[in-house]
Amino acid sequence: MRPRAPAQLFSAAKWAPLLRYAGGRPFTWVDDVIPPRLVRRSRWRRDRLLLRVDPGQGLGRRHVDRLLARPPRGPAPSVRGSAAS
What is the CA radius of gyration of the chain? Predict the structure, then answer.
């Protein structure tokens, strides 16, 4: 068995709690450390979007465009309360 790279161990420590917290709900993960293997596995999942951002460049317009173009699919959020008076 081949030892894992430190970045893989670090992202795995983040990935498992994220999936538990999402609990099957759609989500988007924007981070600088997302292993390509996880991105490939999630590419065809309509309920999740993984977006890697270079920490040296930060979040850019192309990232925002990607987020807006492909939001995670799932049930519409419920609206609590009423704006009408």
Answer: 16
Non-local (6+) Cβ contacts of 72 within 8 A are 26, 27, 28, 46, 47, 48, 49
What's the Cα-to-Cα distance from 44 to each of 4, 5, 35, 38, 40, rounded to whole Å? Answer: 25, 25, 16, 11, 8
Evaluate the CA torsion angle 37, 42, 44, 49 in order and state its sign: negative
Q: What are phi and psi of 17, to 5 degrees?
A: -65, -35
Integer Cα distance of 5 and 23 in angstroms: 27
Per-position pLDDT tens, the chain of length 85: 545 555 555 566 778 888 888 888 888 889 888 878 787 878 788 888 888 899 999 999 999 998 888 765 655 444 444 444 4
And the tokens for 80?
Answer: 């609590």
Is-above-0.85 flag for pTM?
no
